Amino acid sequence: MSRSTPSSTGRCVAVWLLVTAGVLGTCSTVAGAAASLVSSATWHGTFEDLLVAVSAAALVGCAAWLWLVTTATVVDVVRGHVPVVEPRGVARRLVLAACGAVVVAGIGGPALADAGTGGHSLVRLPMPDRAVVTAVA
Predict the structure, then answer these.
(1) Residue 134 DSSP symbol
(2) How many Cα neighbours within 13 Å face the side chain of 82?
(3) Which one, of 59, 64, 94, 76, lies nearest residue 8 by Cα?
(4) 17 contacts 70 by C-beta, under 8 angstroms
(5) Nearest residue to 16 via CA among 60, 73, 61
(6) Which of these, 29, 26, 95, lies nearest to 67 by C-alpha position?
(7) 123 in helix, strand or coil?
(8) How far apart are CA 19 and CA 31, in angstroms?
(9) Spatial separation of the C-alpha atoms in residues 4 and 81, rounded to whole Å
(10) Which residues contact 49 (CB under 8 A, 6 or more apart)?
(11) CB–CB of 102/36 below 8 Å?
(12) 29, 19, 106, 2: which is closest to 68 by C-alpha?
């Protein structure tokens, strides 16, 4: 086991403070919507209001989980109790392959324009002038 250096401790505390600030900001923004789940008006209201309230509660739960994992990791790093484990195996390869597939699928698709729905048509627009290079003999 290696002990943490003062610079790594400072970085860990900076990461923890950044995550804590982000989680507090997120929770303060959506706390009202998440708290509306205890009201029966939300449950008997429109589906959209219920969906917003459930999504806000899920976001608060995920933010709390992120804060707990970050806190536990920072405490372990500061104490020097970080196990040396190399990430390897099939699961890691599948995750990396999925990330690569998403990137390729996102940029590999054609860009299609539907001229009929927007009211704009490119039919009668003039073609731009093209620069013509003459070959030197």
Answers:
(1) P
(2) 17
(3) 76
(4) no
(5) 73
(6) 26
(7) coil
(8) 17
(9) 9
(10) 36, 42
(11) no
(12) 19
Six token digits for residue 36: 């509306």
The predicted-structure confidence for 49-88, as pLDDT tens digits, reads as follows 888 889 999 999 989 988 988 888 888 878 877 666 665 6
Token look-up 């933010």 returns 63
Question: What tokens does 103 get?
Answer: 């990137």
Q: Where are the beta strands (DSSP E) in 6-105?
A: none
Torsion of CA 98, 104, 108, 114, to 10 degrees: 50
- pLDDT recorded at residue 34: 83
Percentage of the chain modeled with pLDDT above 70: 60
Q: Which of 45, 22, 24, 42 is nearest to 33 (CA)?
A: 42
Model confidence, pTM: 0.54
Contacts of residue 82, defined as CB under 8 A and 6 or more positions apart, other chains included, come to: 1, 2, 76
